[in-house]
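User: Can you recover a sequence for this backbone? Please restate the input before giving your answer.

Assistant: Of course. Working from this structure:
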């Protein structure tokens, strides 16, 4: 009891109420009220609301986590997704992604990423040439061809 006249602070009352609720209810209770809350929120807010809170959440998360965190959750998400989906799923989303990308980018974009990919692969090379064209050169030539 922290306030004057032996009254409990709002913070303390909230904490105690939360502890009592947690003791009296199970996981299903929280799932159910979460579902109801999500439905009510979706009825009262538009797409921009979700974009804004997603942006804020992403910024807050990025301030609190490093590259390893994102690698770990990405790997977990990828593994969970692969357990739940088949080859057709990946073909479908790959096609959708390719179509969306092609609608938003021009030939210069593809030239640039082709060249960068070629350069990156060339940097990974183990040094053996065997008379073959370097990957960097192949990427550059592929980019030039797509310009035509």
């Amino acid at each position: 009891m922290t306030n004057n006249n032996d009254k409990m602070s709002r913070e303390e009352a909230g904490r105690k109420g939360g502890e009592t609720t947690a003791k009296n209810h199970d996981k299903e209770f929280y799932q159910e009220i979460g579902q109801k809350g999500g439905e009510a929120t979706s009825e009262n807010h538009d797409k921009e609301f979700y974009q804004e809170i997603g942006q804020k959440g992403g910024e807050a998360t990025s301030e609190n986590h490093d590259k390893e965190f994102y690698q770990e959750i990405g790997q977990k998400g990828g593994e969970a997704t692969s357990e739940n989906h088949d080859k057709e799923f990946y073909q479908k989303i790959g096609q959708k992604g390719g179509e969306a990308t092609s609608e938003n980018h021009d030939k210069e974009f593809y030239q640039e990423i082709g060249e960068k990919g070629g350069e990156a692969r060339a940097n990974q090379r183990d040094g053996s040439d065997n008379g073959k064209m370097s990957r960097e050169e192949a990427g550059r030539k592929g980019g030039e061809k797509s310009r035509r």
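That completes the design. The CA atoms of residues 42 and 73 lie 26 Å apart.
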